[in-house]
Amino acid sequence: MTKKTIPEEELEKVSTMRSVLEEISLNSNIVVKNKKKFSLRDFIWDYPLYVSKAFRMFVPLSYILVFFLIGALLSLFLQSDIVAKVFSEQRNKDTYVEGSVGAISSFNPLFLTNNYVDRAVEELVFDRFVYIDKDGNPVSGIATEWVVSQDRLKYEFTVASDKHWQTGESVTIDDIIFTFETAISLKRDYDYDSVGSALTGMTIERIDNAHVRFTLSEVTPSFWEAISIAIVPKLRLESVSVSELPFDMFAKYPVGSGKFKVTRTDQNAVYLKDNEYDEYNPAIKEITLKIYPDKESLETAYRIGALDGVGGWDKELFSFMSEYSNVKEYSKRENFRMKTIFFNTRKDSLKNKDLRVALSYLLDKESLLNISNVNGSLLKGVYSENTWAFNSNLEYYSYNPEKAKTLLTSLGYTKSEESGYYETKNQEFLTFSLSYFESKTNERLVGILVDLFAKEGIVLKTEKLNYNQITQEIIATRDFELLLYEVECTVDPDQYNLWHSLKTNYPDLNLSGYSYERVDILLEDARKSFDKSVRKSKYDLFQKYLIADAPAIFLYNPTFMYYVKDNLEGLDIENVKYSYERFHNIENWYWK
């Protein structure tokens, strides 16, 4: 093969072409380096391109930012008065919708319950045999008049002839006798926690179709509150076995003779309608009670205008209400409800009185209320200070760690400088278990209690329980060490069921298992007398012994807060004893 030789002039052409290409390349580089100057006009015109480029560059942070902005804008929108107004105006002026945090249990009034929603429904649906005013005096209900024998063992009542069930039938003497006898049987024969617990020793008999007689085995000033129970229809319940009453559908769809009737019940709401068979013609024809699982759900419902009112006892729950100017706030101290830490005196760890006293000195109750933001008034003892039975001459326990230290040292406990806790000789921490019902308020209270006692050198272990656990496993068996619990008392200061030694077993309410013969005698004597001065002297001594023995730490009376739209008129919270009675004059409520 022979090599092909390129002519000289061809080589010269190639060299020249290469020079031209290099020059073009150089000029191109110069153009790239001399970029166009920034123009605000062009930026504004092409801003979508720049935003898109920036968004892609910062993924996933850009997505998070977008969702945050959307959430913030939605939150501001929902909080606006415009939204609330639009939703509110969509409802009729004859409707009232209320919200609360809680649950629904049973509307059968023959059973005792502390459930806030249940009790409110019962007050709307049923008439009581007699009512009790805020001073403890009887007021006519289904019974309109009464005559009391000189020895106060016989009471004869005249029954109203114009009362009707929500089905249209008349309320009769048979209904009244059936109600009381069933309530007594629930307690006596089946040991249910029923309103019949307070009716022991009474007999009820018909005199005629308009009169009924109660006969007592002994005199008791708490008689009026004992018979202040809701009357139920015999025709509806007589075919139901007494043992099966807790499980009958009457618990969800009750029939009463009250101002309103239940039309529908579901897990999260109760719907009520005016009872057309009663004597009232209220402006509010429909009431809906909505129940929410937590503060956040309740707040959202109010913000979007789904509610006309909200109520409860926890300041923190309603902190958002301060943002609204078109709201009226009502409050009611519940003098006959008390939040208490019960010591189980049956337990070896708490049998020693000085130990219980020391624990009482170690708790700073004022700090507990302030830090927890729970709405309540401090309790010194078993009675509220503004009730007539309160003994103002006693020295009640207040926060005093030095006195507590003296008592605990005498019992063999030493506060370790290293750990900061009280210890036994075997260097074991002084530890107690606190049981409580699971709720947001209680969890906050318990968390603060743990911290406050830890600060003073006491270890608190906590046991959180649901409603069934605390009623069936703790209260029924009395298997606890310390128990945080709220008790509802009667307006009458008789606390026989709370502290008498015969009332230590379920379903009675001597939760501490407290037993002292002198206290038993004082409680027995006080309930036999109608002389207020005699009763006062007995209760003064009762409080003296009870406080000295410290079977419990009395924390506070809860204060009920009620917020409603400011154009709702006619409410009367002042003249009620308990928050669930707030609908007592519902026939006077109206939207203006």
Explain the overall architecture:
By secondary structure, the chain is of the alpha+beta class. The protein folds into three domains: 89-109 and 258-326 and 566-592, Periplasmic binding protein-like II (D-Maltodextrin-Binding Protein, domain 2); 127-246, Dipeptide-binding Protein, Domain 1 (Dipeptide-binding Protein, domain 1), CATH 3.90.76.10; 337-558, Dipeptide-binding Protein, domain 3, CATH 3.10.105. The chain is built from 18 helices and 22 strands. α17 runs antiparallel to α18. The protein is flat. The model is unreliable at 1-6, 24-35 and 81-90 (pLDDT under 50).
Global mean pLDDT: 89
Count of all domains: 3
Class of the largest domain in CATH? Answer: Alpha Beta
Low-pLDDT runs of 5+ residues are 1-6, 24-35, 81-90
Task: Please specify the SSE layout and strand pairing.
Layout: H1 8-33, H2 40-45, H3 47-57, H4 61-79, H5 81-90, E1 95-101, H6 116-125, E2 130-132, E3 138-140, E4 143-148, E5 154-159, H7 173-188, E6 202-208, E7 211-216, H8 223-226, H9 234-237, E8 260-266, E9 269-274, E10 286-292, H10 295-303, E11 309-312, E12 327-333, E13 337-343, H11 353-362, H12 365-372, E14 376-378, H13 401-410, E15 414-415, E16 422-423, E17 431-437, H14 440-455, E18 459-465, H15 467-475, E19 482-488, H16 496-499, H17 517-526, H18 532-549, E20 552-565, E21 568-569, E22 590-591
Parallel strand pairs: 1-10, 1-11, 17-18, 17-19
Antiparallel strand pairs: 2-3, 4-5, 5-7, 6-7, 8-9, 9-10, 11-20, 12-20, 13-19, 13-20, 14-20, 15-16, 21-22
